[in-house]
Design goal:
Blueprint (H helix, E strand, L loop, with lengths): L6 H13 L5 H18 L4 H11 L14
Helix pairs in contact: 1-2
Length: 71
């Protein structure tokens, strides 16, 4: 299942989970918001836009039930 997901997003998620363990709520919110913006800017597959397009325009992606198709 994890291999079907964007490698950039998985890498950033692992790093974020490790980082926020020692932060308070406000610090972790700020950190995760900045990490989210960095992922969107640096993701070569533009997975955020692809997921939205498949969900809103094509109706082929159902969040929580299946990963969206990369590429």
């Amino acid at each position: 299942k994890l291999m079907a997901k964007s490698p950039e997003v998985l890498k950033a998620t692992k790093q974020a989970m490790r980082s926020v363990r020692t932060m308070d709520v406000q610090q972790s919110y700020d950190y995760l918001h900045a990490k989210n913006m960095a992922i969107r800017a640096s993701d070569p597959e533009k997975s955020y836009e692809a997921g939205l397009r498949q969900f809103l325009d094509h109706k082929t992606y159902k969040p929580f039930f299946e990963p969206f198709k990369l590429g």
